[in-house]
Amino acid sequence: MERLRRFSPSSLETYRSCPLKFKYSYLDKRPRKPSTVEAVLGTSVHRALEEVYLARWKGRVLSFEDNVAVYE
Q: What is the pTM of this model?
C-alpha cells in the first residue's frame, strides 16, 4: 500500500511560488539556517508542536520530559 504524503499550507505555497525551492526544501530536505533568534525560536516551537500533535494523532500522550526534549 502506497503511503500518502502530507503537505502543509506553507509547503504548498512554496511550491506555487517556486517549485525549485520546494524541491530543495521538502524533497531533498536541504537544511536551512535560521537567520534570527525569532526564526530559531519559531522553528523549535513548530517542531515541538508537530511532535506533540503527531503523537496525539497516534494515540500517545508525551510526558513533560518528552516535550522538553523535542523542544530542545
A: 0.47
**C-beta of residue 59 within 8 angstroms of C-beta of residue 32:** no
Tens-place pLDDT, residues 37-68:
888 888 888 888 888 888 888 998 888 888 77
Cα separation, 37 vs 51, whole angstroms: 21
Q: Measured between alpha carbons, how far is residue 13 from residues 10, 31, 61, 64 in Å?
A: 5, 19, 31, 33
Give the per-residue SS3 of the chain: CCCCCCCCHHHHHHHHHCHHHHHHHHHCCCCCCCCCHHHHHHHHHHHHHHHHHHHHHCCCCCCHHHHHHHHC
Q: Which helix (H) or strand (E) holds 13?
A: helix 9-17
